[in-house]
Amino acid sequence: GSTLQAAASESGRYFGTAIAGHKLSDSQYTTIANREFNMVTAENEMKLDATEPNQNQFNFSAGDQIVSWARSNGKQVRGHTLAWHSQQPGWMQNMSGSALRNAMLNHVTQVATHYRGQIHSWDVVNEAFADGSSGARRDSNLQRTGNDWIEAAFRAARAADPNAKLCYNDYNTDNWSHAKTQAVYNMVRDFKARGVPIDCVGFQAHFNSGNPVPNNYHETLGNFAALGVDVQITELDIAGSGTSQAEQYRGIVQACLAVARCTGISVWGVRDSDSWRAGDTPLLFDGNGNKKAAYHYTLDAL
Ligand code: XIL
């Protein structure tokens, strides 16, 4: 294939990007996004603060704009994200206990219902585990409502949109030997054993020199897939430049292609200048929309 989406399609996979709604008026941005990608994730527009700014008053206008752009250009949509400790609206940040649990479940239900039938995969829960060696859940207002908050969110999402794939999504879960990776793995294994509805695990894949692409990435992806879930690279970006950066992108693609249930890869933005970490120049196109070495290595590896 001559584009990322065409090349990925040859093995039945998708290649996606995060889209920022306010950039859909930038023709260089939309030209690249439309040409190269066939999966779209709203970078911020479906998050809790965007979709429920006041309790029980939902605002889907920014998310709908992205879904509309995606659908009119023949692209699928990853939903991001229904339950997360971050980017919560102010009213939710100070809630606790059963009131928060009920508000979270209502949020999951209302948002998943609004987008029912239009979402390929939902990141139902994002970033619920702690960094470091503890293997523990991350402390958050949601976690303090009880350890079963994650499975409750998944059950609510399944009831609201039975055809969307339901994913758990996190970062620093790439290296198989890390405690956080093992902790997420154990949760997914437990969910599958008990019939909690989970279909996929998302690996954010934000890499830099302090968090490099692990040599055992294919092992991590393969071990999760063996639990009976799809795996997806959901927010890929790699700090760096030139051949070094390009080789790391190639390694990610090779790891995904080595695992039958690795169903797609999404990068977290189009051009370096669009990145949430623009100073790291972590994406496949430079700030002028030119293809970088990382683009060519990625395309060749697909
Ligand atoms: C980031 C966005 O890219 C930024 O625009 C925003 O200010 C903060 O969130 N993990 C996630 C994403 O799951 O939602 C985050 O996106 C990046 C880290």
Automatic annotation (TrEMBL):
Residue span, GH10 domain: 1-301
This protein's UniProt keywords: Carbohydrate metabolism, Glycosidase, Hydrolase, Polysaccharide degradation, Signal, Xylan degradation
Active-site residues, as the UniProt record annotates them: 235
EC number(s) on file: 3.2.1.8
Catalytic function, reaction form: Endohydrolysis of (1->4)-beta-D-xylosidic linkages in xylans
Family, as annotated: Belongs to the glycosyl hydrolase 10 (cellulase F) family.
Annotated protein name in UniProt: Beta-xylanase
